[in-house]
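Sequence, please.
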């Protein structure tokens, strides 16, 4: 008989390297949210929006796209992305096909990821380590087809 041993693992939020911005993004069937922090853990930006009824993968891809746009437009040059949706990460890192589901979202994400002068790393994280992004989700419950943006710890309607 083979017995597998259960292994306990400490799951926690980890700071990004110095001079990098960390972004945690999550998506749910109707809501998408994210938060960006600097290497000291300070909150710089966040967002939450109603993505409409859709799959988890589409919500995750929309969150990634929205977060990449905000980060690029804010002028940050080094970005570490942590998402709890492995499937979305796998899709983004493979070449996109014209007939692929969510082709336009994937293509736009990939175009942003390959912009010159910008370094982006994408990593998987466990849902339990993504609690800060979860808090942004609470704002998404109140948002109907619009955005709630968090700047310097204050939520603004956008």
């Amino acid at each position: 008989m083979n017995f597998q041993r259960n292994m306990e693992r400490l799951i926690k939020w980890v700071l990004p390297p110095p001079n990098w911005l960390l972004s945690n993004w999550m998506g749910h069937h109707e809501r998408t949210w994210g938060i960006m922090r600097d290497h000291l853990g300070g909150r710089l930006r966040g967002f939450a929006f109603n993505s409409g009824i859709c799959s988890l993968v589409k919500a995750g891809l929309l969150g990634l796209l929205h977060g990449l746009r905000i980060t690029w437009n804010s002028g940050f040059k080094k970005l570490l992305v942590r998402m709890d949706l492995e499937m979305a990460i796998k899709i983004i890192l493979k070449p996109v096909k014209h007939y692929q589901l969510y082709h336009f979202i994937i293509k736009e994400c990939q175009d942003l990821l390959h912009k010159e002068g910008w370094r982006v790393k994408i990593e998987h994280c466990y849902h339990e380590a993504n609690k800060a992004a979860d808090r942004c989700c609470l704002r998404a419950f109140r948002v109907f087809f619009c955005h709630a943006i968090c700047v310097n710890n204050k939520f603004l309607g956008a």
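The first helix runs from residue 56 to 73.
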